[in-house]
Amino acid sequence: MNWIAIINFLLIAGAIQGFIFFGVTFLLKKKIGPAILFLILTVLFISLNNLQAWLIDSGYSTGLFYLKHMLVPWYLLILPCFYSFLLYYLKVDEKLKSFINLALWILLAELVIRTILIAYVYYLEPSKDVSVIEGYTAMEEVINAIFSLIIFSKAIILVFKKTSLYSEILSFDDIKWIKAFLILGSAVFLLWIIAMVVFNSTGNETAYYPLRLATSFILYWIGYQGLFRYTIIQDRILLRKSFPQQLLTKELTKRGNDQKSDFVNEKHNKSFSELEELILTHQKYLDPLLSLEKLAAELAISPGHLSKLINVYSGQHFSDYINGYRIEQSKKLLSDSTFQPYTIVAIGLECGFNSKSTFYTAFKKFTGQTPSDFRAQYD
């Protein structure tokens, strides 16, 4: 199997995966919000574009002149849909306008122009010379690339420069995955420009293969990441609204056994009580960025003194001490049937952990069970 065949295989495999993702999401999601809608449309248009490219490269064609030359520029709709997904995901859809309507009008105009040119060549061109259609295809791609680049630039400006517009979302998601996608997208745009230049100057269609391989990878990645992240963030928003009735209200840490230490005295007893009061009353344990230095500054003591205070009175180091509160909070939510609809990952993140892996590791360490096994006991 040569490399072109491998790329074509990945192309059709990616397209099929995209169609499955599109269908399954529609079937399994009881309610399709605008963000999810535009996400799955992004995946759908990438899939349709890759499928069309695969059909052409594989030699599947039709004897009908019109259908043979009716190339639908599905790629024109990819960036407008992704940008619309961003607007709804970041909850700035009321502040910024999408490009969907403009893209649809451009697509319609291009299909009409292509239809007219196909009819002209078929009925009025004696030799049926398709060079005029090929020339239009090249011009159409350049126009669409410029249009897509404008939208892509808008997305970059929104994500990297206008963080003040979506500061609320940043408390739930650091959007590093979106930034990574945009960086990857920049590389894809470069491949697109190179492919157009090489093809229009040499006629070598293999220039598009790196681009198609990259879009296949994007298709796999963006569908999973977007749907997973959106589900998590929606759960976290709803969870946070319910938290006031489910917060920890009493001391849950155990003091260490080293109560005979010279460090233990009435003054330090009071300091440790103040520490626990601060952590519970102000829910400091829910802050994923909480650090020893940050907590010490609020208590007006040195980090070293705070560390020793925690070690002696709880028998734990700082991380385990704080994670103890987080685990107790997550156990409270996981054992409550009211929170059954929410994902375990969303609960872990809302309880102060900064990732799924740290939550699962800490939960196993403190309870000897995975969060899934723990929740299953209360089903």
UniProtKB/TrEMBL annotation:
PANTHER family referenced in this protein's UniProt entry, alphabetically: ARAC-FAMILY TRANSCRIPTIONAL REGULATOR
Gene Ontology molecular function: DNA-binding transcription factor activity; sequence-specific DNA binding
Parts of the chain that traverse the membrane: 6-28, 35-56, 71-90, 102-122, 142-160, 180-199, 211-232
Domain HTH araC/xylS-type: 273-377
Name of the protein: AraC family transcriptional regulator
SMART domains linked to this entry: HTH_ARAC
UniProt cross-references to InterPro entries, sorted A to Z: Homeodomain-like_sf (IPR009057), HTH_AraC (IPR018060), HTH_AraC-typ_CS (IPR018062), Tscrpt_reg_AraC-type_HTH (IPR020449)
Keyword list, A-Z: DNA-binding, Membrane, Transcription, Transcription regulation, Transmembrane, Transmembrane helix
Organism: Muriicola soli
A Pfam family hit: HTH_18
Coiled coil: none
